[in-house]
Amino acid sequence: MNEAFNYRDFMQNIIEKIKKETDIETISQGSKRQGQEYPFFSYDFINPHVGIHITDNTEHELFEMVIEFDTHVADAAKTMNDIAGITGATQLANQLYKLFNSHEFYIWALANGFVVIETEDINETTNLLSAQVERSAGFQVKLRTIDNFVDNKDYIQK
Fold it and tell me: Model pTM?
């Protein structure tokens, strides 16, 4: 039996593309970020597997996933050039939003085995616990990809 879809490798590819295009690090939401430099992006799977029920195949299954991307910036600027506050968070969220909706990203995504189906509106995502330290804004993106899983086991006795 082949391995099922590898979410880690899938996201690593997207993280590298984001870094290349924005020069900003992306980390998994909830990963240890002590000492993480602002600004940065984070992601979290809202729904990692939404079946598209056009077939009942488990092999080469087409499916969608919903991922939340957030931008994180310091609450207050330390220098004149710092991107900070909710305005800065929204600005960077908009930059990432535009990246996901660009023609260049569409071509790159196709070459990497997925497509962007939908990007939702940008919202402020600052939570009460971190409001005195950072501000954040983000959006959800729905991607469609294929799981190249192949079941090599014969289940019917001959």
Answer: 0.86
